[in-house]
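User: I'm preparing a small set of examples for a lab meeting where we compare how different chains pack in three dimensions. I only have the primary sequence for this one, and I'd like the structure in C-alpha cell form so I can line it up with the others. Please keep the answer compact; I'll paste it straight into my notes.
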Amino acid sequence: MRVIQTLAVAASVAAAVLSAACSKPAPPPEPVRAVRTIELRAGDGAPSIDYAAEIRARTETRLSFRVGGKLVERRVDLGDRVRAGQPVARLDPQDLRLGQDNARAALAAAEASLELAQADFRRYRDLRDQGFISFAELERRETTLKSAQAQQRQAQAQAAVQANQASYASLVADAAGVVTGIDAEPGAVLAAGAPVLRLALDGPRDVVFAVPEDKVEQLRRAAAQPGALQVLPWGQGATPLPATLREIAAAADPVTRTFLAKADLGAAANAAVRLGQTATVRLRLPATGAALRLPLAALKEEQGRSIVWLVDRASMTVRAQPVQLGGADGNEVIVASGLQPGQWVVTAGVHVLRPGQKVTLYGAAPAGAASAAAAPGTASSGAGR
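Assistant: Understood. Below is the C-alpha cell output for the 385-residue chain.
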C-alpha cells in the first residue's frame, strides 16, 4: 500500500513538471514605435525645379589706376568695407612728380616768352604809329605774339594734366562697398587700367544661376506668375525668400551651353543674404490637380500596391492607406489620390509598423516622464516634422 502511494505521488509530481515545461511564457508587451511624420498641406504637390545659385552684388567694379607705375601700398584686404572717397592703394609718385615739375617749368618758359612777345608788339606798334616801320613788320610781331599766347595756353593745359596725373597715384573708391577680390600686390609694376581690386557696391543683390537651354522658355513663363520663384539661402533653414526674375542672358555660355539668369530679391531681403553665399532657386510650376508631395521614405510596397501609414493624432495609432502615385520629383513623389491635406504621414520607420500599432513621435518625451505633461500634439510641432 505504501509503495502504491509513493508511486502516485511521483506520478503527480512528474505530471506537474511536464505541464510546467510545456506551458509557454506570456509574450512581452509590444514596444511603442518612434516615428517621424509630416503634415500634408494643400499646394505641396505642385512640381518644382531647383537650380544652384550664388548671391552677387548688382554692380561690381574693378578699380584700377589711370596711370602706370609701381604699386607701393595696398590699404585694404579681401572682405574689407570701404566708403566713398576712401584711398585704397598708392603708386610710387616720384616719376609723376618729376613730370609735374617739368610741366611747371615749361609753363614758366611759355609765360616768359609771352611777356617778351607782348613787350615787342607794344614797341613796334608805337614805331608804326610814328611811321618808322611798315605794316608788314608790325604784322610779323603780332603773329609772334599770337604764337606765344598759344604756347602759353598749351603749357598751362599740360601743367594741369600733369597735376592730375600726380593725383592719380592714389587710388580712391568711387562708392561704398565690399572688397571681393585682389588682383595686384605691392611691388608689381602696373600699366594704366590694370585692375588692382574688385569692389562690390552696396545696394541691390542678385541671385545668379545657370539655366539649361531647354528650360529657358519654361522659366520665362513660370516666373511671370506671382510667387513662382523662391530663393532658399543655404544654412538658414527652409524659409524661402520671394524673388523676381530680372534678366536672362541673350546667348548661351560657349562652354557650359547654359543661359545665365538673374533674380532680384528686393531691398527687404538684402539684409538676409551675404555676398557669395550659396543658395537654391526654386521654380514652382503650375500644379496639376490636387496632388500632394511626399518623400520616398514614406512609401511601402504591399501586395503590389503603394501604401503609406497615417497617424491618428487622438489615439496615436497608425493605419495603412493605399495611394495612387502621379510621378517623381527628385527624392520626392507626387501622390495623385488617396490622401487629404491635414493628414499626418509617417516618413521613417514604415517597414516595422502594423495596423493599429501604438506610436510616438520621434524626439517626444517617453510616457511617465516628468517632462511629458504636454499633450502628444504639442510634441509633434518640432519632432514630428
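A couple of notes for your slides: Confidence is low (pLDDT under 50) at residues 364-385. The CA atoms of residues 279 and 358 lie 40 Å apart.

User: Perfect, thanks.
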